[in-house]
Design brief:
The structure is a single chain. The chain contains 12 helices and 15 strands. It has 312 residues and is α+β, with helices and mostly antiparallel strands. It has 2 domains: 3-124 and 288-311, Aminopeptidase (3-Layer(aba) Sandwich), CATH 3.40.630; 131-262, Aminopeptidase (3-Layer(aba) Sandwich). The longest helix has 13 residues, at 189-201. It has helices at residues 13-22, 32-38, 89-94, 134-138, 143-153, 165-174, 178-183, 189-201, 239-243, 246-258, 273-280, 301-308, and strands at 3-6, 43-47, 52-56, 58-61, 64-68, 79-80, 100-106, 119-129, 158-160, 205-206, 209-211, 217-226, 229-237, 264-266, 285-295. It is globular. Helix 2 packs antiparallel against helix 8 and helix 5 (143-153) crosses helix 10 (246-258). Strands 4, 5, 7, 8, 9, 10, 11, 12, 13, 14 and 15 form an 11-stranded mixed sheet that branches. Strands 1-2-3-6 form a 4-stranded antiparallel sheet, covered by helices on one side. Helices cover 33% and strands 27% of the residues.
């Protein structure tokens, strides 16, 4: 297969998005407009007819070109119109230009690669099939999840299927979790705001929320929508929301509203045991995807940049 490297200005985004739309492993993160938001100036590898493509989240710092997984983008890798087992993932990886001296990216669930050419690590995401009835889905909730939903019901909170974006952003500022602090940090807030605008323009999200009895928003989550999948992108809640188990209630009501559909709910994680336990408590199943690390610097610069990469 002939594979070409394209700079950002040379990418035919109409052809690109046509491939992502019809790819068996297409995902929200791979749309050209999503990439424009989270990694402006991204580059690409494509074959002659754009039937197989791979985004390159390119960055440059201190004159060094490198690839680094963007914010709120769990998986990338190779997307193709062909069946996953026919996609030459390794051929694409071998065509990553030599100018990228450091590479730290993830592939998608359909991409498999083996061998000693790359440093590969397996990661976990949790996925819930929404096709059964709500009764059948809820029957697989863990005891802890059921207990927390019952507790939430005692507070007589109200579920809303779509709250205003402005109200969600105010909630993020109230949330003290690490995830919200990252999204609102100086290095990420511009990217996050740009992504919300893009999701809005393409009608690719929903924003369910929970209000307490006074009408105050105490929990909400930005959920991406694409390819018959829901992506749990950015949850947020107040201390009151945590006390009232509002996120358990929100997810339960959202799952109920989408049950008996053809879709899946992607919890987007997690390698962190406590988070994985929370997601698995809703009856989701573990799925695996790979991350890839390549350090092309000569010794001893390769050791130096390995430590520096934590601040990229």
């Amino acid at each position: 297969m002939n594979i070409w490297h394209l700079r950002h200005k040379d990418i035919n985004k109409k052809r690109w998005d046509r491939t992502i739309k019809h790819s068996p492993n297409g995902q929200l993160y791979a749309w050209s407009w999503y990439l424009d938001a989270v990694t402006p100036g991204w580059e690409a590898l494509v074959n002659q007819d754009y039937s197989a493509v791979m985004p390159l989240p390119a960055r440059r710092k201190h004159g060094i070109h490198y690839l680094f997984q963007p914010l709120l983008t769990q998986q990338l890798g190779v997307f193709s119109l062909h069946p996953p087992d026919e996609v030459p993932v390794k051929d694409f990886l071998n065509r990553i230009p030599s100018k990228f001296r450091w590479i730290q990216i993830t592939l998608n669930q359909s991409n498999s690669v083996s061998g000693n050419d790359f440093k590969i690590k397996s990661h976990v995401t949790c996925e819930l099939d929404l096709s059964p009835s709500y009764h059948d889905i809820a029957a697989h909730y863990s005891t802890n999840t059921r207990r927390n939903i019952r507790k939430a019901n005692e507070y007589h909170c109200t579920y809303e299927s779509n709250i205003p974006v402005e109200e969600f952003l105010r909630l993020l500022h109230e949330d003290q979790s690490q995830g919200s602090r990252i999204l609102l940090s100086r290095s990420h807030t511009e990217t996050f705001n740009r992504l919300i605008l893009s999701l809005t323009d393409h009608q690719a999200y929903t924003l369910p929320g929970i209000r307490d009895t006074s009408g105050t928003l105490i929990a909400a989550s930005l959920i991406g929508v694409s390819h018959n999948r829901f992506y749990y992108l950015a949850p947020a809640q107040t201390n009151t929301g945590r006390e009232q188990r509002a996120m358990f209630y929100l997810l339960d009501r959202f799952i109920e509203s989408q049950s008996e559909s053809t879709g899946f709910f992607d919890f987007e994680g997690s390698d962190i045991e406590n988070l994985a336990r929370f997601y698995l408590g809703f009856g989701s199943r573990k799925k695996h995807y790979l991350s890839l690390q390549i350090n092309r610097f000569p010794w001893p610069l390769n050791i130096f940049f390995l430590h520096l990469s934590g601040n990229l």
